[in-house]
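Need residues for this backbone.
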């Protein structure tokens, strides 16, 4: 059953896979900079933060353009201003990697060369009322005060079949609709692909990598279900701890007997009752 369940974060996975292809990455850049018609695939370098062997932060997409621009793009389905802070952290790490890669001395007297940064978030969820085009650390966290370090993130949320960013947003919306109809199932995945191809949304990508896209969108473990199970386990453990404390108190006051514990506290187990009885006996 688990093998027929798609990842809750499928949009991020498809996003990453889509723009690993420089052909589509170039199209994304030209949406952001339509005036820059001379840029080619050779001018674009992937600088996405990748931590394969360690548990660390990584971003959705980062690329440099001719050594003069560094562009970081995040795909976000839930509206949160915290993306500003995350984008700033990703940018610092990207610059750290850049200076190390280019062997520039940050402690020397010579001013280092660095590409100009641009930060974007592609928002694919339900839009808040009057969504802003730009969010910033200063404006949204410090009431517009002048601060030592600021970061501005441009928000992209327009559905548009005429460009690859707008098509990606449409793809996400279609999946959300299909998930509501079919749940987190393979049917929702295949219907999303079929509808998008019929609408000419990411059609070239979906046709050339259809099986790969299906594989990406399907997973042996549903991340959300795992997290929900973990949260439920924590909740249950806390409830059991509270019940055990209350049972001990009631036993000490003589309000219930050991035999009545499971009647009054059904969340406990027989092993819990044995532990409670042992603990109470030690206190006597």
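Answer:
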């Amino acid at each position: 059953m688990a093998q027929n369940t798609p990842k809750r974060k499928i949009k991020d996975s498809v996003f990453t896979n889509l723009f690993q292809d420089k052909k589509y990455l170039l199209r994304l850049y030209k949406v952001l900079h339509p005036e820059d018609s001379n840029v080619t695939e050779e001018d674009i370098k992937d600088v996405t933060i990748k931590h394969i062997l360690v548990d660390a932060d990584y971003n959705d997409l980062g690329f440099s353009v001719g050594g003069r621009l560094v562009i970081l793009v995040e795909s976000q389905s839930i509206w949160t201003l915290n993306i500003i802070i995350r984008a700033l952290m990703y940018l610092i790490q990207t610059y750290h990697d850049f200076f190390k890669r280019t062997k520039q001395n940050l402690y020397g007297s010579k001013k280092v060369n660095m590409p100009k940064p641009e930060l974007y978030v592609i928002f694919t969820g339900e839009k808040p009322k009057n969504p802003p085009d730009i969010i910033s650390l200063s404006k949204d966290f410090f009431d517009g005060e002048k601060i030592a370090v600021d970061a501005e993130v441009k928000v992209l949320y327009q559905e548009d079949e005429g460009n690859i960013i707008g098509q990606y947003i449409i793809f996400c919306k279609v999946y959300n609709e299909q998930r509501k109809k079919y749940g987190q199932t393979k049917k929702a995945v295949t219907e999303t692909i079929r509808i998008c191809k019929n609408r000419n949304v990411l059609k070239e990508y979906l046709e050339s990598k259809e099986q790969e896209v299906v594989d990406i969108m399907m997973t042996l473990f549903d991340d959300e279900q795992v997290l929900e199970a973990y949260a439920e386990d924590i909740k249950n453990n806390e409830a059991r701890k509270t019940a055990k404390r209350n049972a001990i108190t009631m036993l000490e006051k003589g309000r219930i007997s050991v035999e009545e514990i499971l009647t009054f506290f059904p969340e406990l187990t027989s092993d819990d009752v044995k532990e409670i009885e042992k603990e109470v006996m030690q206190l006597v």
